[in-house]
Batch of 2 targets.
Target 1
Amino acid sequence: MPDPKYPYTKEVVDAARKEGMTQIEIAKLCRIQQSTVSGWSKGEKIAPIHVIKPLIEKYGTQINKKHSRVYFAYERRYIINDTVLSLCAEHAESLKTHLGEIYNTQQEFFQVFEKTGVVLSTKKKKPFEPSEKDKLLDSAYSEKESIVQVEGKIIFKYHFQRKTDQQTNKPGSRTKLFTWQRWIIHELGAGELTWVVQIRREIKGCLIDTLYDDAKWKSLIMSPRKPEEIIQRAEKYIAQENFDVNNFNDKAVLPFLLRKSFIENGYYIEGIEKILAK
């Protein structure tokens, strides 16, 4: 698979030149010809990441720091607390060894039960009903809030919208839409991306409403990922049976817009047909 291109080729070369490196020195560092460096410097060519990587390692942070955004972030956590122990009373003693440990996903949380030899069951030794399992998860779930600064240029934004409850009966008026979720993707460099999933913040079940947009949202910040992984997870997300049936537009346009953004920012995406200029 071809290496992705580095979209800030000219900028990182300029940063190196400002630090005193000559085109000859850059060429030696990257093991290429000086004429190639000249093309980079003029913005005529975009370098593959594996070729320009030595320059990225030295000066890439200077480029990323020009683009940053601050988020009100949260982390999902599942903890074996007293309520969870009461729901699994007959297994409480074996689960107490894990009391206080934090698990970031439902899968990690339930693996604890498997490791202790516990089959998720009620006091009557019957399998948990879905509602009981949901109650267990709700009891264990908590969030850790923080403020996080993410560096890197934003290359993708998407708003998930649904109809509001407040509709107007005026002839010719448009249906009011409510943005309930947003996706933002930052470039980190070296072919990696940070994926930010935002949902509206609430206090006691009421949405926070303020003129300051960034303060309305809480953000789940994903660890660095490759474009292919984001596409796969996005398509899996919108294919869920419980995905809002009213959001058929998202299912139609989101996969295309993700690929379009990645391609236009120099990333290789498999299965794309190219018509090259002569």
Target 2
Amino acid sequence: GLIIAANTNSVNANSLGQWIELDAILAVVIGGTALTGGRFSIAGTVVGALLIGTLTRTITNVGIPSEANYLFKAVVIIVVCLLQSPRARASLRTWFRTDSTKAVRP
């Protein structure tokens, strides 16, 4: 909370730190931790936190309204969750599979 107050140069007890849990969950999921449990990576979580910080700063520096941060982060969460899903991976494999019977033989 103290770091956030220093970044915003103000303190509001009602909204300070709001949506921080979204960034924490997103950093952990991007870092490779399975949502089902069982495997995790501290180094991956640190990399995920750096990516989230970079995404947030980039959106702010480009001039996109800060409210759009949540939209971009939600899209990232959906993509990462789909990539971790076994059913989605199987669908992607069949989608991008090349059919050897369609190959033209000389």
